[in-house]
Amino acid sequence: MENKTKGGLEAEISKALTQWEKDYLGRGSVSVKTDILRDMIIVNLLGILTPAEYSLCESKEGMLSIKRLRAHLIESGKDGLMEIILKITGEQVKSFHTDISTTTGERVMVFKLFGNFEKKLMGKEL
């Protein structure tokens, strides 16, 4: 991780998570944006849902079913996601949170780290 900028790390995380999606879920999102903020790595993934899933989301039962299924898929691959963050940043993940919007088809992932990674990076960039 030596001499990598905050923006460079954010781009690397976005690229790695897109690849993880393709390898693990069989398809990737349309776009991914990662932000490092204090002790968090926040990832916004757009274009997650398929046209069929949007159709199912028109009913409350279908929407809950899609949310539940997608949550289980991500949860089953959580260790791989946390390994990606560790490999790129050198930081252990303390906790992982995620949710998907069945309206916009976007997913937000939040990786909470043990320390203030942004501050650590800023010290290296000075």
Automatic annotation (TrEMBL):
<dbReference type="InterPro" id="IPR018745">
    <property type="entry name" value="MpsC"/>
</dbReference>
<feature type="domain" description="Na+-translocating membrane potential-generating system MpsC">
    <location>
        <begin position="5"/>
        <end position="113"/>
    </location>
</feature>
<protein>
    <submittedName>
        <fullName>DUF2294 domain-containing protein</fullName>
    </submittedName>
</protein>
<dbReference type="Pfam" id="PF10057">
    <property type="entry name" value="MpsC"/>
</dbReference>
